[in-house]
Amino acid sequence: MIRLLVVALSLACFVAAEDDNKIEGPVVGIDLGTTYSVVGHYEHGAVEIIPNELGNRITPSVVGFSETERIIGDGAKNQISQNPENTIYAVKRLIGRKYTDKSVQQDKKLLAYKVVKDGKGAASVEVAYKGENKVFSP
Fold this sequence. Notes:
By secondary structure, this protein is of the alpha+beta class. It has helices spanning 2-18, 74-78, 102-110; strands spanning 27-32, 36-43, 46-49, 59-60, 62-65, 70-72, 87-89, 114-117, 123-129, 132-136.
């Protein structure tokens, strides 16, 4: 995953250099993985992976919702067993899919959180957050 991010950032800078465009600032890249995500930046000819708030170079692709807060990454992953219906993981599988897609209907059976249809027929997720039911698009 990190290797892919480094290649993507390097390629973006190479293409800009080939077009005689000068890069005025750092290039930031995000590798959104199904289970883990990585953020890095390219500056002065080098790629640096940005550590998360715990100092880790990879962050779980998990978001949890509670009555009081939104929890991201390691914290969300750690509370999944206590709050499974309000902890979103593997959401990348839903991006760009219609709610009626066969794969969405199969995945829906395996996920602890609610997968719902939004107003446009797309697959979305529903969670309880701060005392309200909220629908989010992946």
